[in-house]
Amino acid sequence: MNILQKILSRMWPDKPINETKTEMVSEPEAIEQIQGNAGKLWPQLCRETIDYYKKLGCPCAFPRFIQYTSIDCVDSGASFSMRETESFIQASDDCFDTNEIDKGNECYRAILTCKTCGSTFMKAWSDFSIAINRTYLKPLELKAPQIGADAERPIPFMAGLCGYSLPDKAGFKHVDHDTFRAYLRAMKDCAKFSVTKILNNNRELLYDGNQDRFYDNHSLVFNKQRYNFRISDVISLENLQHILNEAFFKDVINNMNFKSSAFDSKVYYRSKEGLSSGYLKQDELIIIVSFGESQPCRYKIFFEGIVELQSCKQNTG
Ligand SMILES: [Zn+2]
C-alpha cells in the first residue's frame, strides 16, 4: 500500500479502494482546470463577487455562495479539491470573525461568525497529500434572509476540480466566465423588486474636475435627505437586472435615456455623454449615477435619478 492508499483507507475504512486505478494514477486527475485568459480573470471574479454580496448584505444571503463553500469531498468518499470552494472561502475571509476550536479529525477547525448577520459556519481544512488539500465552510446557523437564487445542479464551475478520485462528472457542468458570474449573482424572484416610481427630472452635475478628487466622497440631496457615496461604492448598472424584475429594469434604462452597448459579449449601459452608469442602493431607493472621464484628464459624475422600490414580497402579501 502506498501512502495515499493508507491515508484513504484511514479516512474511509468502509470504502473499498480501487487498487488498479490508484496505482496507475501518480498525478492527480483534473476536471477542466482553469487556463489562459479565464485563469487571469479568476481572482478578480472572486473578489468582485464577494464585494457584490457585501453591497447587498453579506455572502450568507446567497445560497449559491454556500453551495460552493460547502463542497466537501469527504461527504462523497472521494479525494479532490475544487478551486471554486477554495477561492470563495479565501476571498470571503474578512466577512467573518474566526474562533479556532479543537481540530478533531481535521488539520484545522474554526467557528466563523459573519460580521454582518451573525450567521455561524464551521470551517475545516485538511491535507490529503502534497497535491490535494481541501477546505470547507459549512453553515451551522444561517441568520440572513436568503435573497440569492437557489443553488442548481449539475453544479456549474469555471475553475475546476482536481484530485485522486474525482466525483461523478454528471454532477458538474463547465460554464464560461459570464455564465458563471451571472449564476453567482442571481437573486430569488421573490427577493426582486418592482419599481413604484422613477424620478429623473433633477439630473445634476455632482463633480467636474481632475482624477484626484474623483475618488473622494461625494454627496447629493434628494427629498431633503443627504446621501454620501464614493465611486468605489457604485455598482455597475447592468447588475440592477439581478434585483429588478425584467420589465422594470427596461423601464429604468429607457427613462434615464441610457444607451446599451455590447463589448466582449457583455451589455453595458452608458449615459448620453457616453459615461459609465451605476447605482447605489439605500434601503428602498436606488440612486442612479453616471461617471467617468469625459475628456482626457477631466472627470465627471452626474446624479441621473432615483428609483423607488417595492419588494415583490410586499406586492403579493
Ligand atoms: Zn452574513
Please outline the helices and strands:
Blueprint: H1 3-11, H2 19-24, E1 29-31, H3 36-56, H4 63-69, H5 73-76, E2 79-82, H6 83-91, E3 96-101, E4 108-114, E5 120-127, E6 133-141, E7 155-157, E8 161-165, E9 172-174, H7 177-185, E10 193-199, E11 204-209, H8 211-214, E12 218-222, E13 225-229, E14 235-236, H9 240-243, H10 246-255, E15 259-263, E16 266-270, E17 276-282, E18 285-295, E19 298-311, H11 312-316
Parallel strand pairs: 7-9
Antiparallel strand pairs: 1-8, 2-8, 3-4, 4-5, 5-6, 10-19, 11-19, 12-13, 14-17, 15-16, 17-18, 18-19
Helix pairs in contact: 3-7
The protein binds zinc ion.
Zinc ion binds next to loops.
Query: What quaternary form is this?
Result: single chain
- Largest sheet, if any? 6 strands, antiparallel
From the spread of the alpha carbons, the general shape counts as elongated
From the N-terminal CA to the C-terminal CA, the straight-line distance is 63 Å
Relative strand content? 35-45%
Q: Mind telling me the C-alpha Rg?
A: 23 Å
Q: Structural class, please?
A: alpha+beta
Catalogue the ligands: zinc ion
List keywords for this structure.
six-stranded antiparallel beta sheet, elongated, binds zinc ion, 317 residues, single chain, alpha+beta, four-stranded antiparallel beta sheet
Could you give a quick summary of the protein structure above?
The chain is of the alpha+beta class.
